[in-house]
Amino acid sequence: EVQLVESGGGLVQPGGSLRLSCAASGFTFSGFWMNWLRQAPGKGLEWVANINQDGTLKFYVDSVKGRFTISRDNADNSLFLQMNSLRAEDTAVYYCAAGLAHWAQGTLVTVSS
Amino acid sequence: DVVVTQSPLSLPVTLGQPASISCRSSQSLVSSDGNTYLIWLHQRPGQSPRRLIYFVSNRDSGVPDRFSGSGSGTDFTLKISRVEAEDVGVYYCTQVIHWPHTFGQGTKLEIK
């Protein structure tokens, strides 16, 4: 069974940091581009970052460049998103997705004082 | 950035009736490999999105054949031949050829 299980979300103050993790199982993790997407409360979907199969290519949406870092560990079937200098507008449910074929359950990140 | 525009944004449909959603992009989504990188997703209330269709018209495993995708270049359509109760939710199209990848605004399908 394909599973993507996220962890690491929560409440953080503006300027703070969080690290999201996504553990994959049931499919060939190393064969997929991996993605982080987010959905602000009541809003649509937004791409955040993605990374190619061997981790050599990474892309970020402009609003998170220089603050977020995507990475992966193919030996451990894991995807990460290091989020620094968080802002109120980063508040959202964050999803990891393999291609767009498989999705995690989402983890809520709330940036508030 | 590539702008993706969906219409309508709200779609009330009677059970058993057809439904159609339009998706237009500001740039061609055709790649040099011959594929067109347009995907349709469905998000039920309170759930993660689910991919329905990739490369314009290829249904994912387990997606009912009442769903079909068509189009080319910059103009695409998702059709549901006979709407069922489980089809409620928001439908998104997204282009995955130009970075940043971008989504349409979403079309909320509800049962009349």
Write the layout of secondary structure elements.
The complex is a heterodimer of chains A (113) and B (112).
Chain A: E1 3-7, E2 10-12, E3 18-25, E4 34-39, E5 45-51, E6 58-60, E7 68-73, E8 78-83, E9 92-98, E10 102-103, E11 107-111
Parallel strand pairs in A: 2-11
Antiparallel strand pairs in A: 1-3, 3-8, 4-5, 4-9, 5-6, 7-8, 9-10, 9-11
Chain B: E1 4-7, E2 10-13, E3 19-25, E4 38-43, E5 50-54, E6 58-59, E7 67-72, E8 75-80, E9 89-95, E10 102-103, E11 107-111
Parallel strand pairs in B: 2-11
Antiparallel strand pairs in B: 1-3, 3-8, 4-5, 4-9, 5-6, 7-8, 9-10, 9-11
Structure, described:
The complex is a heterodimer of chains A (113) and B (112). By secondary structure, chain A is mainly beta. Chain A has strands at residues 3-7, 10-12, 18-25, 34-39, 45-51, 58-60, 68-73, 78-83, 92-98, 102-103, 107-111. Chain A is 0% helix and 51% strand. Chain A has no helices and 11 strands. In chain A, the strands form 2 sheets. In chain A, strands 2, 4, 5, 6, 9, 10 and 11 form a 7-stranded mixed β-sheet that branches. A 4-stranded antiparallel β-sheet of chain A has the order 1-3-8-7, with no helix packed on it. Chain B is globular and about 40 Å long. Chain B has strands at 4-7, 10-13, 19-25, 38-43, 50-54, 58-59, 67-72, 75-80, 89-95, 102-103, 107-111. In chain B, the strands form 2 sheets. In chain B, strands 2, 4, 5, 6, 9, 10 and 11 form a 7-stranded mixed β-sheet that branches. A 4-stranded antiparallel β-sheet of chain B has the order 1-3-8-7, with no helix packed on it. In chain B, 0% of the residues lie in helices and 48% in strands. At the A-B interface, β5 of A face β4, β5, β9 and β10 of B.
